[in-house]
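Our preliminary data section would be incomplete without showing what the modeling component actually yields. Below, a chain of 612 amino acids is followed by its predicted structure, encoded as tokens that our downstream tools consume directly.
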Amino acid sequence: LYSPSKCGMKKLIWVIEAYLVSFAFTVRFQRPELSSNFEETVDYLLAEAAHLLGEYSFLSVLLFILSLGFLKYMEKFEGSVRKGAVFLPAFFSFCIYKGRSFQDTNSWDYSFGSVVNFIKFVAAFIGTTIFLRHALFLLQYVYERFAGSPWQCRGSRWIFGKYCFLKVFLLLLLLWMPVLILSFPGNLCYDVIGQIEQVIGRASYSVHHPLLHTLLAGGCTELFYRLTGSYSVGLWIYVLLQACMLASALAGTVWWLSGRRFARGAVSHPILLLILSVYVFSPMYSNIASTAIKDVPFAAAFIWYVILLAEVRIDPGRLRQKGFTAVLLAVEILMSLLRNNGFYVLFLTGIVLCAVWWKQSGRGERLRIFLFLFLIPVLLSRMTGNILATGLSAEKGKAAEMLSLPFQQTARYLQLYRQEITDEEKRAIEAVLKDVDEAAAAYDPDLADPVKSLYYACGQVSGREILGYLRVWFTEFFKHPCVYAEAFLAHVYGWFDPQVNNAPRYEAEYDLFEKTGLFKTSEKVLLFSYRLADRITPLGLLQNVGAYTWAMLVLFSYTRRKNQSMTALLTPLLVSLLICLASPCFYLHPRYAYPYMFTIPFLYGLAERSRE
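Predicted structure:
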């Protein structure tokens, strides 16, 4: 029964895995060495060998011992860990090293730039995958223990008992109020400045920004200016309004989870306290709540949309109730109108839910699902949007907003292979990007706006010219696919890499608003506080986009294995991630990810208790 050879082999595997894990934590990458920089070939080979071996210190030895102990501890879960998915930790490991490479070099040189870097990348990739596979299993184990815990205390029973919604709503507003006052009349983003200018007559209306939000933010500012003679007061009232909208949506998640009863019992108080702790301690909520921006009311509508979808999934009979369907339609239309890409969330989610829930429903339920989750809200959203655009004589938007990634790939291609394009290809590109040399010079791997501005400089671009450009873009992919791949990874890696810090505080200024707050330097105090919080590991993690993307993908994997009925509820979040990938950049704009970042805690509260 006892095989010394098998025992010895297992110990050897532990040692190898522990070495790879410790190597992954200490590995250092360098840009590829050029042999031409060395007098002798042997000097070049010795330098490459030194880079491959790296530096070994007390920390390396300590990490090796800790890794060995960790793997030994995980032996008691060996069967469960072995059954766990490998793809997800491998994907996360890939994101880490690709992110590090593109953050330092704007290329994948750390992975494929040289033989030495490739060997180091493979070893570190395997080591990180091993560690993450075990770590994710442990997190799932702890999560299920928390979710199944019967623990309660007097304080938790009070918070999650009667008037739960009101208590959480007032708590959040109370915590945010100092920031709202200090930032008076509100932290400004350039988007909202343009929207307010449309309402007060300094600019014409445009569907570039959602017209409903333009009327909401600009109308509130203009109304209170007429009542008080101060644009600043009007803007601050709007900021208070949007803060209330967000606080109500977050309070709604806790209220719904605490009041819902599932077949497996109520949601545990430890899980509810964890969700509330995220809302309380994450700096991103007070930061964005005090920022005048369209993403706040949109995120609030998005959260309510997911809550209502969860209600429909658990109790399909709710679609028979006129009051519920009226609320559902109102939320769906608001989400679609408060941000332009909200319509795509509604449209794609409706298609997926109709397809997935079709087989699980009776004939009458299928019709109601199709009507109330797709057909009626899509038609009403489009109709309302067209009425607003026509009534305000709003200018139409341009296709450039959806072409950020192709423009980035073309610009990078022009930087490297400008001499290879034909005259015909040049004319097709310049029809939408003005000048190929300017496009190449404007390329910024992290931001699409410089290249995209050339599109706007062309004036009116016809659909035929856009199609001509896309044909050239598609053709050039087959000539140098690696250029397109690098441009894509440079454009999107920040959404997947928790090592990227992208939690800003906008600092736009506008002559109508005098930033006073409680004292002259209050905004500087806030700016310092948020930057400091981003550097404190627990607080920084609570607002890190990459960490929430990982959390969403982990939840998707978990529900696929243990709660498939809930997997479809992640569709709006996954659509939001796709919208992020198509956005102009990730640096300084984590707000694009707020819809799924704000909804993740709620879905983690729902996932375990609603298991089939």
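The mean pLDDT is 88. The beta strands are 187-188, 261-262, 265-266, 291-292. Preliminary results of this kind motivate Aim 1 of the renewal.
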